[in-house]
Specification:
By secondary structure, this protein is an alpha+beta fold. Helix content is 18%, strand content 29%. It is built from two helices and six strands. The strands form two sheets. A four-stranded antiparallel beta sheet has the order 3-4-5-6, covered by helices on one side. The protein has a two-stranded antiparallel ribbon with strand order 1-2. The chain starts with a strand and ends in an 8-residue tail after the last helix.
Length: 107
């Protein structure tokens, strides 16, 4: 079972208490963007085997959105951080690099 710690309320919650929100750190495209940019934003998503950054909502807790770094193959969680963060914090990147030296980096 996947267990994530909400960075806002500090509760360690099982995935049944959370709602997934898809890939994190996407550049949003909306009205006024080209058709190709909007199509890529709406439909093109990474589906990696390995380290992935995701959006989660603490649905049955504080209700806030947050971001998580985890391995999609093993469910290992490298850390969680506030949704307003534009890039993963340095300590999470260091944690990933320590456990996955072959990881090619963020983005």
């Amino acid at each position: 079972m996947l267990i994530l710690e909400c960075p806002y309320c500090g509760v360690k919650a099982e995935e049944t208490e959370l709602s997934p929100g898809g890939e994190a750190h996407l550049k949003r495209f909306g009205p006024g963007s080209s058709d190709a940019d909007f199509e890529a934003y709406m439909f093109a998503r990474k589906n990696p085997k390995g380290v992935h950054f995701e959006r989660w909502r603490h649905a049955y807790g504080c209700g806030k959105w947050f971001l998580a770094a985890r391995c999609t193959a093993t469910l290992e969680v490298f850390g969680t951080y506030p949704a307003q963060t534009s890039e993963p914090p340095a300590e999470i990147i260091a944690n990933i690099m320590a456990k996955r030296p072959a990881w090619k980096g963020f983005k």
